[in-house]
Amino acid sequence: MQKVLVVDDEIVIIDVIQSYLEKAGYQVVTAMNGVECMRQFILYKPDLVILDLMLPDHSGEDLCKTIRAQSDVAVIMVTAKSSINSRIRGLSLGADDYLIKPFDPRELITRVKTVLRRTEEHRLLAYSIEWDDGKLIIDDERHKVFARGEELSLTSREYDLLVTLARHPGRVWTRDELVVRAFGFQYEGDLRTIDAFIKTLRQKLEENPRQPRYVHTVYGVGYRFEVKPL
Q1: 3-class DSSP assignment, residue 74
Q2: Is residue 108, in this structure, part of any structural domain at all?
Q3: Which keywords has UniProt assigned to this entry (predicted)?
Q4: pLDDT at 187
Q5: Is the pTM of this model over 0.85?
Q6: Which residues are registered as beta bridge partners of 51?
Q7: Distance from C-alpha of 182 to C-alpha of 165, rounded to nearest angstrom
Q8: Which of 77, 107, 124 is the last residue of a domain?
């Protein structure tokens, strides 16, 4: 049963959404403020978050940024803000959909089903990823990495770092972004330790770590994953 976290400061709206979601076969957890939202998010690891943007203690935009920095979970923003700029900002923060109050709960259920189907298809396709004509394989379902036919012995940090980079080929990541996305917002290490992780990852991954084919340094910014032609 897929789990949905509903975050809104109006109990009537929570009750209505929860009732419709449960009738549609979803397991529902709720929160009425930002602090409770993050507690429930970490505790229950929902498949989708329905997030009101106007909460008493935190803005929904900030919560969306925090959630998106550490997870690919589906997010539907719900708000009374109807301006096009608000919608653009919400989607640019990583929301998968945006619904304006007042809305028909049946429309919300349809959007929940659509967003979950789309994100689930993406996850299934990403369980095993190959690059470089199969010379590099990341099997996320088994938590294994193979390079040139041999399984690599990676630490959990090295693995998380590689997966974060490889799932977004061509994207340039700053050290701050990599820390939050790969290690979580509670990571307390120095940002420069990312450089050490990259160094050891290259030594295990690359045929020639001094001339990497996969994990590249973008000087003055951070790192990028991209298969460099021979």
Answers
A1: strand
A2: yes
A3: DNA-binding, Phosphoprotein, Transcription, Transcription regulation, Two-component regulatory system
A4: 55
A5: no
A6: 7, 77
A7: 9
A8: 124
